């Protein structure tokens, strides 16, 4: 992708409202049942977990975002500082530009330099497997950041509404399977904000992917990003029609867990607090991920990115304390999450506005 376009992506995401106009994640439809006697010391609430065999201090992922430009290099350095300090995982943005222009690779590799111990995931668009990319490219993006795994992203809607997007998505499941077999590090598949269905989860489990990140609807909307970027009136109109397309994050999580109960699952897309994250874990996720809030913080400084990770961790811990869940396993098996009635959910949605 042209680096000018990458810069524009950052600018639009930082300066304009590109959240879903109407559709919500569904987190507002759930509430924890407060336990006035938690029978726990808040100081001992333990958020440690493991993901794909790697220890994490908090079940938190900085979702895949950026690279490719000088501004992106600074943002990746700040995000990596947060990952290293907070003991959380981090995804890089699509590394295609780093393969095509070797001097650009440093804008991604900075993450590993700043976070030598963090769990870091490389990133490529899965559709590239239909456009000349294969095992060699995948190995190179993993090596570029000494990644602990490769995330392949699925963004068929984004590609379909762009002029000149990569729209041949046939035969991809088998190609993802080939990569899973040969790459030698875990392959994770994620959406970018429209969610994974049960059928897609089952197909990906069938070819052996190591984990899924459902990246559901209700947070950042890439059709809204595209709508603001394009000078073309037709593309804007079409993007608008799909502004509320997608599977809300909590729905997608339910579908994925039902279809593939044992699959390690990251819940993301519109997660905006440690309380949302706690709900995601109580609904069966292993990790929760945030993109936009980390982008806004990392555009300011490393300290701001670290503070964001710390605040989310604190919120998660307080939520766990208030339902008497002393560790992540207890949170994942809590009986204190309640689905609100439709009337209650409407009130919650209003107060979140
Ligand atoms: C500026 C920006 C760039 C992104 N670039 C990528 C990318 O290269 N690869 C990818 O898998 N997802 C990418 N995403 C999608 C995010 O990883 C995430 O799935 C999506 O933004 C929804 O999460 P959110 O609601 O917390 O922002 C990007 C998101 C943002 C905000």
Plain-language structure description:
- The longest helix has 21 residues, at 302-322.
- It is built from 16 helices and twelve strands.
- The chain is α/β, with parallel strands linked by helices.
- The protein has one domain (3-352): Aldolase class I (TIM Barrel, Alpha-Beta Barrel), CATH 3.20.20.
- The radius of gyration is 19 Å and the shape is globular.
- The chain has helices at residues 3-15, 70-86, 96-100, 106-114, 135-144, 156-161, 172-182, 198-206, 222-229, 233-241, 249-259, 274-282, 292-298, 302-322, 328-332, 342-352; strands at residues 30-32, 49-51, 54-56, 60-62, 89-91, 120-125, 149-154, 187-191, 211-213, 265-268, 287-290, 337-339.
- A hairpin with a 2-residue loop joins strand 2 and strand 3 (54-56).
- 46% of the residues lie in helices and 13% in strands.
- The strands form three sheets. It has an eight-stranded parallel beta barrel with strand order 4-5-6-7-8-9-10-11, surrounded by six helices.
- Flavin mononucleotide binds next to helix 1 and helix 13.
What topology emerges from the helices and strands here?
Blueprint: H1 3-15, E1 30-32, E2 49-51, E3 54-56, E4 60-62, H2 70-86, E5 89-91, H3 96-100, H4 106-114, E6 120-125, H5 135-144, E7 149-154, H6 156-161, H7 172-182, E8 187-191, H8 198-206, E9 211-213, H9 222-229, H10 233-241, H11 249-259, E10 265-268, H12 274-282, E11 287-290, H13 292-298, H14 302-322, H15 328-332, E12 337-339, H16 342-352
Parallel strand pairs: 4-5, 4-11, 5-6, 6-7, 7-8, 8-9, 9-10, 10-11
Antiparallel strand pairs: 1-12, 2-3
The structure holds flavin mononucleotide.
Flavin mononucleotide (FMN) binds at residues 9-10, 13, 63-66, 93-94, 123, 153, 190, 192-193, 215, 219-220, 268-271, 290-292, 295.
